[in-house]
């Protein structure tokens, strides 16, 4: 059986990029035969940077609601909160004794987030990849859906699994494999086709949030940056037109057709004709998710019941694995 693990931080609202790049694939993975899926809200990771403590709990529920609204079925997959499973943190400490400082210093995400103030960065940010390794290995996950920015962290998890097995002469931790679900669309900002769509961007007009209503989605698409040229016949002709390519990419992803097929539908047309069609498609695909999220957020107790069920399942896997790790390492049990 494949055991699949992944998660997102409850830092702020999820957007179209999160849905197309991750959530949509998670939904398909839970229907694969002989697969067990564990989807976590990564709140311990969220506190490694500045965050709003007054909103963390609500943000955690909101991310869980987004998982479920996007199609994650709690009867097929376990949905839970990272901090509710103490085994994550406990295994993280044990793995930290094997993690080499040099490898952690070379992590590109640490360099990006710490910037020029690396000496003043918190230990949590520095050790973030070790916690991510523990998140994966505490379930002996065999497969992990990851984006480009997380591949280096998955490599560290594989290294730590191998180090543990070698140091203690056991074949205990598997080598987690990255999940490749096909070419995920590269979702860029609606205001700058050279920048990724991000929930941390200052302007809300740069992204389509999963909580946006139909009118706001249409408004954002209408105001999306484009150019004055009509849409061409081939993708090659979109070279040097990043905003145009981004909108065609998003249309194709939502319509579940190729980018060339999407472009063929609008050959020779101006964006004044394309944008209304794109807005109608986006509303059609995203409105059911938004409605379901709103229903769930209006009944927080319902979300908490789902998270409690997921926590029970996750701990039933994690607790024995941690106990075995402690025995292998020689702790008194």
Overview of this protein structure:
With 333 residues, this protein is mainly alpha-helical. Helix content is 52%, strand content 8%. It contains 14 helices and 5 strands. The strands form 2 sheets. It has a 3-stranded parallel β-sheet with strand order 1-2-3. Strands 4-5 form a two-stranded parallel sheet. β4, α9 (151-167) and β5 (177-179) form a beta-alpha-beta unit. The longest helix is centred in the C-terminal third of the chain and has 30 residues, at 300-329. It is globular, with a radius of gyration of 21 Å. The model has no long low-confidence stretch (mean pLDDT 91).
Strand content: 5-15%
Question: What is the number of beta strands?
Answer: 5
Q: State Rg.
A: 21 Å
Shape: globular
Largest beta sheet: what is the strand line-up?
Answer: 1-2-3
What fraction, in percent, of the residue positions are helical?
40-55%
Query: Number of helix segments?
Result: 14
Would you identify the regions where 5 or more consecutive residues have pLDDT less than 50?
none
- Judged by helices, strands and strand pairing, the structural class is mainly alpha
Average pLDDT figure: 91
Please summarize the sheet with the most strands: 3 strands, parallel
Q: What is the element string, with H for helices and E for strands?
A: EHEHHEHHHHHEHEHHHHH
The CA-CA distance between the termini, in Å, is 30 Å
Query: Oligomeric status of the shown chains?
Result: single chain
């Amino acid at each position: 059986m494949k055991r699949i693990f992944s998660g997102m931080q409850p830092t702020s609202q999820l957007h179209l990029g999160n849905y197309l790049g991750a959530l949509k694939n998670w939904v398909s993975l839970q229907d694969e035969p002989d697969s067990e899926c564990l989807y976590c809200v990564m709140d311990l990771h969220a506190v490694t940077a500045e965050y709003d403590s007054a909103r963390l709990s609500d943000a955690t529920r909101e991310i869980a609601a987004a998982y479920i609204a996007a199609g994650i079925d709690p009867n097929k997959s376990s949905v839970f909160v990272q901090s509710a499973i103490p085994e994550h943190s406990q295994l993280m400490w044990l793995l930290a004794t094997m993690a080499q400082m040099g490898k952690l210093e070379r992590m590109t995400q640490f360099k990006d987030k710490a910037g020029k103030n690396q000496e003043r960065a918190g230990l949590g940010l520095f050790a973030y990849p070790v916690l991510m390794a523990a998140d994966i290995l505490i379930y002996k996950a065999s497969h992990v859906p990851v984006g480009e920015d997380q591949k280096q962290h998955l490599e560290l998890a594989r290294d730590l699994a191998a180090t543990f097995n070698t140091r203690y002469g056991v074949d205990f931790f598997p080598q987690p494999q990255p999940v490749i679900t096909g070419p995920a669309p590269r979702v860029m900002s609606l205001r700058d086709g050279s920048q990724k769509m991000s929930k941390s961007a200052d302007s809300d007009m740069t992204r389509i949030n999963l909580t946006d209503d139909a009118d706001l989605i249409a408004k954002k698409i209408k105001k999306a940056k484009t150019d004055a040229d009509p849409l061409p016949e081939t993708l090659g002709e979109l070279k040097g037109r990043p905003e145009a390519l981004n909108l065609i990419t998003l249309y194709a992803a939502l319509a579940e057709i190729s980018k060339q097929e999407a472009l063929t539908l609008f050959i020779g047309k101006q964006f004044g004709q394309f944008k209304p069609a794109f807005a109608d498609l986006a509303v059609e695909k995203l409105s059911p998710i938004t409605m379901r999220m709103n229903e769930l957020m209006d009944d927080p107790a319902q979300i908490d019941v789902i998270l409690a069920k997921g926590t029970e399942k996750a701990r039933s896997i994690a607790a024995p694995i941690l106990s075995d790790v402690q025995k292998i390492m020689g702790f008194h049990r």
